[in-house]
Design brief:
Length: about 230
Amino acid sequence: MIKKLAAEFVGTFALVVIGCGAAVLAGFGIVGQLGIALAFGLAIVAMAYGIGQVSGCHVNPAVSFGCWAAGRMELRDMLGYWAAQCLGAIVGAGVLYVIASGSPDYALDVNGLGQNGFGDNSPGHYGLAAGAVFEVVATFLFLVTILGVTQPGAPSDFAGLAIGLTLAAIHIVGIQVTGVSVNPARSLGPALWVMGDAIGQLWLFIVAPMAGAGLAGWAFRVRLLSER
């Protein structure tokens, strides 16, 4: 179990440093929305093949919750994964802050750390309802992909690629809506460093992804979306 928790810590750390790092260090003016989306997706591809054999590469409390809801994970293991994932995200955001602070043009209260938000804190100024619907639907579809490609009989050799590309596609669609969470740990890490509205709006990026993941997990548990 120690190896699994270490893997989840490293994987979530990498996701935040690479994905949020693309938004903070390169941003829309350099790599654009597509570049940021690919950074998140490629980070998942890399970690899927790097740590997938150890922990399954959840690197996301919503993924662990969806696996538990689908009957593929024990409650005790899920709680351990959550702790490792959240710690990895917090440390990753802290490292990103240290790197970003090396630029004289960077200010935490202005540039942030890739935190999620709605309303005035949404890149496209989308409201609470739009953000909630997007996060629930996007997480549901993300979990359908994950649970589908990892079920018995699926072509598992390409699972990491399919999952990473799905996350990239979700970011292409949703960055302007909420900055895209679909991952409570990814939202928690930057929010704890930025504080202010990032903390005040964090609840949405915990509740909505968990709801979407739970729905997907239930669909697989009752075999609505699986044959076995």
